[in-house]
Amino acid sequence: MLKLNNSIAVRSGLFAISCLFVGFANSTELHASLSEVFQEYSDCVDEAKAIHPKIVSCVQSEIGRQKQSMETNINAASKEPSMRELTASITENNQLWMPYVKRLCDIYIQLGGQRGELLSENCILNETIHRKLFVENILEEASI
Q: Contact 38/14 with Cβ under 8 angstroms?
């Protein structure tokens, strides 16, 4: 039962997050991006069939995709001479942000077991999505 509840919690949490971001989104591009992410992640969680290590792997893979996307955006922006200082600041700030998020989300580990691990990983995913959107917004505002 715990495995099924974790699967439902992860899917429900991601759906709530995507709804929250869509509610704040100003463009259809962001909505399409979130829909694509949600679908890929949702498919992975469905294929995991409520098996804890597979669900955690889905979350970790999505964290990796979000980080890679953020880095790609930063690297692309850094090619513009007017954006180099900003992108260097973002990169430096990200180095401080990553350990902060790890410590923040590790609080869930204190709950113990699979639940604590899954909640911790999901927290990191949520924070990574927030950070990616934050970085995208800064880069977009700076390019105007």
A: yes
| pTM of the model as a whole | 0.75
Quote the tokens at residue 30. Answer: 């962001």
Q: Mind listing the pLDDT tens digit for each residue in 46-65?
A: 999 989 999 999 999 999 99
What confidence tens digit (pLDDT) does each residue in 123-132 have? 999 999 999 9
Half-sphere exposure of 138 (CA within 13 A, CB side): 20
Pick left, alpha or beta for residue 27 (phi over 0 → left; psi -120 to 50 → alpha; otherwise beta): beta
Q: In 28-67, which positions are buried (b, 16+ CB within 10 angstroms) versus exposed (e)?
A: eebeebbeebbeebbebbeebebebeebbebbeebbebbb
